[in-house]
Design brief:
By secondary structure, the chain is α+β, with helices and mostly antiparallel strands. The protein is built from 13 helices and twelve strands. It has one domain (3-181, 225-283, 305-330): Ribosomal Protein S8, Chain: A, domain 1. Bound molecules: NADPH dihydro-nicotinamide-adenine-dinucleotide phosphate.
C-alpha cells in the first residue's frame, strides 16, 4: 500500500475542506473533521479518513443535512432528548454531552437519546468525553442489517457497536469500544481493499458458507456476531437500546428507507452517564485503581483503549493510504 505522511492538523483540514465543499456548514464540517482526525490520531483507522467519501456521498445525495442544527431538550431531569436534525452525529454529540453530563452530575444518572441522526464514527469520543467529566459512560448505536443473529444466515442486526468508559482522575479513562460483530464492517472493507484474509468466524459468503475472503463477506455476504449466541444477545440489546428505547429505527427499519448511497443509514444513539462519586462515595476512584492494579499486574493483560491512548501521544505525521487521500482531494478539487 502506498502511503502519504500527513500531520493531524493536515488530516483535519483535508476532511474539513472536503466536507465544506460538499454541503456542510462550518459547525458541522469542524465537528466531523475533529471526529475524523482524532480517529486517525488514535489509530481508529476504520473511522478516520476512510469514512470521508461515505460522508460526502450522503451529503451529495441529499440524505444527510450538512447544515443540521441539533437541539437538546430535557424531558425529565434525567432524560435528554437530542434531535439531530437529520445530520451527522458529531455536532449533536458535541452539544449534547455537556447537557447529559450536567444532569448525571446533579442526580447521579442520566440518559440521552439522539434521534434523526447518521452515525458513521467510533463511539469512544462520546464515552471518553463523559469519563473526562468524572462519569461512567455507555453508548451504543445500530447500523443497517449486516450481521446474522446466531443461528441465522441472513442479516438482521447492524454491527451495533457498544462503548464503555470508566473515569480515572489524572489519567486517560479506561475505555472499550467494540462492534458486536466479530469484526467491524470498515475493517472487513479495508481487508478486502488491501487483499488480506480475515479469520474464519468473521462472516459468511453470499451462499451462507463460512469464508476467510473479506470481499465475499462485504459484497453480498453477512458478518457474524462475536462470541456466538452471547455476542448475538448483546447485539440484540444494542438494537433495543438505540432503537426501542430511544424511539428510533431498528436496523431492519433503517434499511427499508435508506437510499444506499454509500453513507450510513439513519437511526439513533443511546448514551448513559452515571456518577460513581454519588453512588459509591468519595473513595470510588482509589477503590477502582486497586482493581486496575490487580488487572494489569497479570501477565499478558493490557487495558482496552491503551493502544489508542499510546498512539495519541505521538505528534508524528500519520501514514495515510495515498489512493484514499487522492480520492478525497478529487471530491473538492
Ligand atoms: P477492536 O476489535 O479493534 O477493539 C475493540 C476493543 O477491544 C477496543 O477498545 C480495543 O482497544 C480493545 N482491545 C483490542 N485488543 C485488545 C487486547 N489485546 N487486550 C485488551 N483490549 C483489547 O474494535 P472493533 O473492530 O470491534 O470496532 C472498531 C470501531 O468501529 C469501534 O470504535 C466502533 O465504535 C466502530 N463502529 C462504529 C459503527 C457505527 O455504526 N458507527 C459500527 C461498528 C463499529 P484499543 O482501541 O486500545 O485497541
Amino acid at each position: 500500500m502506498n502511503t502519504i505522511s500527513l500531520t493531524i492538523p493536515e488530516i483535519h483540514e483535508l476532511a474539513r475542506r472536503c466536507l465544506l465543499h460538499n454541503g456542510c456548514d462550518a459547525a458541522n464540517a469542524e465537528a466531523i473533521a475533529t471526529t475524523v482526525s482524532t480517529a486517525e490520531r488514535d489509530g481508529s483507522y476504520s473511522h478516520g479518513l476512510f469514512r470521508v467519501p461515505g460522508y460526502v456521498a450522503s451529503l451529495r445525495s441529499g440524505k444527510v443535512n450538512g447544515k443540521a442544527n441539533p437541539q437538546a431538550k430535557l424531558i425529565t431531569p434525567a432524560i435528554v432528548r437530542m434531535d439531530g436534525d437529520n445530520g451527522y452525529t458529531p455536532l449533536a454529540i458535541q452539544r449534547g454531552v455537556p447537557i447529559l453530563a450536567d444532569a448525571a452530575q446533579q442526580i447521579g444518572i442520566a440518559a440521552m437519546g439522539i434521534t434523526n441522526t447518521y452515525h458513521f464514527a467510533a463511539l469512544w469520543p462520546e464515552t471518553e468525553a463523559l469519563a473526562e467529566r468524572g462519569l461512567v459512560g455507555l453508548a451504543c448505536t445500530a447500523y443497517k442489517p449486516t450481521v446474522a443473529p446466531h443461528g441465522a444466515k441472513k442479516p438482521l442486526f447492524g454491527t451495533n457497536p457498544l462503548s464503555f468508559a470508566w473515569p480515572r482522575p489524572g489519567q486517560t479513562p479506561l475505555v472499550f469500544d467494540m462492534a458486536t460483530s466479530a469484526k467491524a464492517l470498515g475493517d472487513v472493507q479495508i481487508a478486502a481493499r488491501d487483499g488480506h484474509q480475515v479469520p474464519l468466524g468473521t462472516g459468511l459468503d453470499p451462499d451462507g458458507n463460512p469464508t476467510t475472503d473479506p470481499a465475499k463477506i462485504a459484497n453480498g455476504g453477512v458478518l457474524l456476531p462475536f462470541g456466538g449466541y452471547k455476542g448475538s444477545a448483546i447485539a440484540m440489546m444494542v438494537e433495543l437500546l438505540c432503537a426501542g428505547m430511544v424511539g428510533e429505527r431498528f436496523s431492519f427499519e433503517a434499511a427499508k428507507v435508506d437510499n444506499n448511497d454509500g453513507g450510513p443509514a439513519g437511526g439513533g444513539e443511546f448514551l448513559l452517564a452515571m456518577s460513581p462519586a454519588i453512588m459509591a462515595g468519595p473513595d470510588w476512584a482509589a477503590h477502582a485503581e486497586g482493581f486496575f492494579a490487580e488487572l494489569t499486574g497479570l501477565e499478558g493483560v493490557r487495558l482496552p483503549g491503551q493502544r489508542r491512548h499510546e498512539n495519541r501521544l505521538s505528534e508524528a505525521p500519520r501514514p495515510i493510504n495515498a489512493e484514499l487521500v487522492e480520492k478525497i482531494r478529487t471530491l473538492y478539487d
